């Protein structure tokens, strides 16, 4: 009888250890996911059609927060950032102007630093229209535009025209829903 009691106690201890080990694995996995989401990855759903045809409304994208830890964005990068006019919102746009650039938009074409040749933008949804004058990008800031220029609320229209370095969240690398597509 004493042997049966020991076996029962051993089984209970074994089951308890197994449950505890599973709880430990689950807690570790949740902590790792929270860490990755807060410090490494940026996951966003695109709410508008301002980046069509590259990214459509409802698409889910994934990027890296660490992309700009050691160097700033490059012209053409698709970036997730805090909207300068309301930092509670995240936006996704393309970097057009870098710190110190002079951006001129004439008849829908973008000219950088006085160039006679417009910026080559094969990603645009359609031929853009409109003249918006000249913007001089301050140090530590970026000028952003959507790929769907005729239907994009971007730097051309914001009260706070430029995205500062501290408003950058990360570089978008791929769309994962619906379907998979690399963005760069």
SSE order and pairing:
Blueprint: H1 2-40, E1 41-45, E2 60-64, E3 78-82, E4 90-97, E5 102-106, E6 109-112, E7 133-136, E8 141-145, E9 163-164, E10 168-177, E11 181-182
Family: Belongs to the peptidase S26 family.
GO molecular function: serine-type endopeptidase activity; signal peptidase activity
Main location: membrane
Mean pLDDT: 90
The share of residues in helices is 10-25%
Determine the strand fraction and express it as a percent band. 25-35%
Order of helices and strands: HEEEEEEEEEEE
What's the Cα radius of gyration?
Answer: 24 Å
CATH class of the largest domain: Mainly Beta
Q: How many strands in all?
A: 11
- N-C termini distance: 71 Å
Shape: elongated
Low-confidence stretches: none
The second-level CATH architecture of the largest domain is: Ribbon
- Total number of helices: 1
Oligomer: single chain
Q: What is the domain tally?
A: 2
Q: Helix/strand-derived class?
A: alpha+beta
Biggest sheet, open or closed, and with what strands and sense? 8 strands, antiparallel
């Amino acid at each position: 009888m004493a042997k049966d009691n020991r076996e029962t106690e051993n089984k209970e201890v074994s089951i308890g250890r197994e449950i505890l080990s599973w709880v430990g694995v689950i807690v570790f996995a949740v902590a790792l996911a929270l860490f990755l989401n807060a410090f490494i990855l940026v996951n966003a759903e695109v709410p508008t059609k301002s980046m069509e045809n590259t990214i459509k409304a409802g698409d889910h994208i994934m990027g890296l927060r660490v992309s700009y830890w050691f160097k700033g964005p490059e012209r053409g990068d698709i970036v997730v950032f805090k909207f300068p006019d309301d930092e509670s919102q995240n936006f996704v746009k393309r970097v057009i102007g870098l710190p110190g650039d002079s951006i001129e938009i004439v008849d829908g074409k973008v000219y950088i630093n006085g160039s006679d040749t417009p910026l080559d933008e094969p990603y645009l949804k359609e031929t853009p229209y409109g003249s918006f004058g000249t913007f001089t990008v301050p140090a530590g800031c970026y000028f952003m535009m959507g790929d769907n220029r005729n239907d994009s609320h971007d730097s051309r229209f914001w009260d706070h025209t430029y995205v500062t370095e501290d408003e950058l969240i990360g570089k978008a690398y791929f769309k994962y829903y619906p379907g998979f597509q690399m963005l760069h």
